[in-house]
Design goal:
- The chain is an alpha+beta fold and 110 residues long.
- It has one domain: 2-Layer Sandwich (HIT family, subunit A), CATH 3.30.428.10.
- It is built from 2 helices and 5 strands.
- The chain has helices spanning 5-10, 58-74; strands at residues 20-21, 25-29, 37-43, 81-85, 99-104.
- It has a 5-stranded antiparallel β-sheet with strand order 1-2-3-5-4, with helices on one face.
- The longest helix has 17 residues, at 58-74.
- It is globular.
- It starts with a helix and ends in a 6-residue tail after the last strand.
- The structure holds guanosine-5'-monophosphate and zinc ion.
- Residues 5, 14, 16, 28-32, 40, 87, 92-94 line the site of guanosine-5'-monophosphate.
- Residues 1, 4, 6-7, 46, 96 line the site of zinc ion (ZN).
Length: 110
């Protein structure tokens, strides 16, 4: 989608340090990390938010969590604190559905 910062990252029009890429997904570190490990898992398909998800996105959402699982291993978080967070509404700043993998010295686990 035009003028979407994450679509631009996916199309490599904006640089990012992509740590994982598949046909359907990219993952890259958050530019302003909130934890020791802060990776954004982003479906390549432009879906705005949780409220734009449909049943047809089921496989894609499975791939999100498989990607999270792989990154948990890659970043040695298995025996550390980690969580996967999705912001929405006024808590969401980039209107392209994405999942925050936060790990390490987290102050609070919700
Ligand atoms: P949201 O608040 O939408 O859930 O989170 C958006 C996240 O994207 C924020 O944590 C912000 O730091 C990150 N972000 C925004 N622009 C960029 C960018 O151009 N590159 C990277 N790597 N992260 C970004
Ligand atoms: Zn987008």
């Amino acid at each position: 989608m035009e003028n979407c910062i994450f679509c631009k990252i996916i199309k490599k029009e904006i640089p990012s340090n992509i740590v994982y890429e598949s046909d359907s997904m990219v993952a890259f570190p958050d530019i302003n990390p909130s934890a020791e490990t802060h990776i954004l898992i982003v479906p390549k398909q432009h879906i705005g938010s949780i409220q734009d998800i449909s049943k047809e996105n089921g496989q894609l959402l499975a791939e999100v969590y498989l990607t999270a699982s792989k990154l948990v291993s890659d970043y040695n978080l298995t025996n550390n604190f980690y969580k996967v967070v999705v912001n929405g509404g006024k808590a969401q700043h980039v209107p392209h559905l994405h999942f925050h993998l936060l790990g390490g010295n987290l102050k609070r686990m919700v």
